[in-house]
Amino acid sequence: MKKLLSLFLLSQFCTLSSQVTNIIPTSTSIAQTSVADSHSWSAFNNPAMLGNLNQSELGFQLDNRCLLNELSTKSIQFAYSSELMNIGISYSYFGYSLYNEMIVGINLARNFSDKFSLGVQFNYFNSYFVASNTYKGAILPQIGLSVRFSPSFNIGFQTFNPLQTNIQAEYIVKRIPSVFSLGTEYFFAPEFVWRTQIDKEISSNYRFATGFDYQMLELIRIKLGFYGSDYLVPCLGLGFNSGRVQVDLNCELHPLLGLNTMVSLRYKFRK
């Protein structure tokens, strides 16, 4: 019964949230306003943001949807920072025995004199088809750009699967969402930032999102925002910074599907 419920909720979640597909792990930016987030690189979001890192880091993340383990996404990411360019490797797994998806990405990015950042990521997506008991995969490109217009304002753009690649299985065609995202980032002060984002999946409605990130204390950040497409979804988050360790906790309350949560742990290596 629990697995049947998981399959039902999975179909509903994919239908209602296709603008930012479950293939892509939740970003640490509140309300998934990561496309212009110059302070953080989230796996499979804007690959250009990897170019802004000035030190290597290792991160782990767990997304939980509808309080069901079967709808969880587990991901790991590693970034290597160098003078020539930054290199990132990411892995994400979603689902359980009856349905699961896996994606691996290699990201190359560079910051050009702090005026703009450019990133390219090559993703391999693999899905399990229970009807034929087989795995099928495809290679998906991802391109990102971030432009800094002033010390307090920048714009980000990224596209995931712009070629609209799909997977042909024995009985069905697995459609992989093609997402285009545009966003802004504005600093009212060094400790107070406002981000906005618009996402468009080729065959879905627009998704609008906005969020505020405030460094309340030296170690604690408060994040507040919302996003909307078919429904308006409020989002709340906390961030903890302690030396080279960063922890993020985000949650969102969908009016139909319930509570979705994300926890992220990152370790920054010495320069």
Number of domains: 1
Helix content: under 10%
- Secondary-structure class: mainly beta
Distance between the termini: 51 Å
How much of the sequence is in beta strands? Answer: over 45%
User: What oligomerization state is this entry in?
Assistant: single chain
Highest-level CATH class: Mainly Beta
**Gyration radius over CA:** 18 Å
| Unreliable residue stretches | 1-18
Quick overview of this protein structure:
The protein is mainly beta and 271 residues long.
Report on this structure:
The protein is mainly beta. The chain has one domain (2-268): Beta Barrel (Porin), CATH 2.40.160.60. The chain is built from 1 helix and 16 strands. The protein has one helix at 2-16; strands spanning 57-65, 68-80, 86-95, 100-112, 116-129, 134-150, 153-160, 167-168, 173-174, 179-189, 192-201, 206-215, 220-228, 232-242, 245-254, 258-268. The strands form 2 sheets. The protein has a 14-stranded antiparallel barrel. It has a two-stranded antiparallel sheet with strand order 8-9. A hairpin with a 3-residue loop joins strand 4 (100-112) and strand 5.
Jot down its keywords.
disordered N terminus, 271 residues, two-stranded antiparallel sheet, Porin, mainly beta, 6% helix, globular, 14-stranded antiparallel beta barrel
